[in-house]
Amino acid sequence: MTEPSYQPPHLAENAASASGNAAAFAPSADDVFARIAGRYDFLCDLFSLFAHRVWKARMARVIAEAPGAVVLDVASGTGGIPFRVLDRLGKRADAPRIIATDICPQMLDLARRKIGERPGVDFALADAHSLEAFPTASVDVFSISFAMKICDRHRVLDEAARVLRPGGLFLCLEAARIPNEALHWAYMKYVDWCMPMIARLATGNDPGAYQYLTRGIHGFPSQHEFAREIEVRGFRDVGYENMTAGIVALHRGVKT
To answer: What DSSP character marks residue 5?
Structure first.
């Protein structure tokens, strides 16, 4: 397999604007998530200094409080969001059905193990770009966390708009731009220098484990720009909530 080459930030941004894939990631070219599946949760803790747990808990709370009968969580990875939503729902009589999907079988297997034999959750191998198994207007909540930057976000947004029922809720937790320019500059230095160094040590110098992450953070649009991309696909009440000074943002919109 050819080792994926690193793109400088300005090239990543150009690729993002051209294709909608901020990380210029193609799973058919590098099956990185199959390789790191067993270390994925550890790497999330490492890269975010455990902050991802707080961010995901916030998203899970919003999902658990949303009305509706079906939650579709795409690119679920090891099931962090469905796991937290189920914990919040408890044994609620009106709890929605949760469908956890991912394109990587190894990640989906870990999600099954993490969640276990709990009622109210199903698992499906599915590509977030092409959700043929899910009919038009069939889900009430569409959620995706920390995967939009490695997808063609335009295609994922189109699928979200298709499968959501009118009045359904779209949620996306993703890397963002810190409004304070000095703080954003300092954070991007951490992304460019510290994060790859940590990842090399943690993954045995597996470039795919960190290059897509750094490219995706650089190339993903600002909160305002991404909100506009959501709006033009027919969503109303579009907004976002910055977390940890704007390192990440939770975007939302309601299907018209």
So the answer is: P
**Strands 248-255, 164-175: parallel, antiparallel or unpaired by DSSP?**
antiparallel
- Count other Cβ atoms within 10 Å, centred on residue 15: 17
Dihedral-angle region of residue 156 (phi above 0 means left; psi in -120 to 50 means alpha; beta otherwise): alpha
CA distance linking residue 34 with residue 117, whole number of Å = 23
What is the distance between the alpha carbons of residues 152 and 233, in angstroms, rounded to a whole number?
15
Cα separation, 168 vs 161, whole angstroms: 9
Predicted TM-score of the model (pTM): 0.91
DSSP 191: I
12 phi and psi, to 5 degrees?
Answer: -60, -40
40, 33 contact by CB (below 8 A)? yes
d(CA 234, CA 148): 18
Residue with token string 């943002």: 249
Alpha-helical regions (H) of 66-207: 80-89, 105-115, 153-163, 181-189, 195-203
Q: Which residues pair with 172 in a beta bridge?
A: 144, 251
Alpha-carbon gap, residue 125 to 256, rounded angstroms: 28
In this predicted model, what pLDDT tens digit does every residue of 210-246 receive, in sequence order?
Answer: 788 899 999 999 999 999 999 999 999 999 999 999 9
Give the integer Cα–Cα distance in Å for 115 and 110: 9
Check: CB of residue 56 under 8 Å from CB of residue 87. no
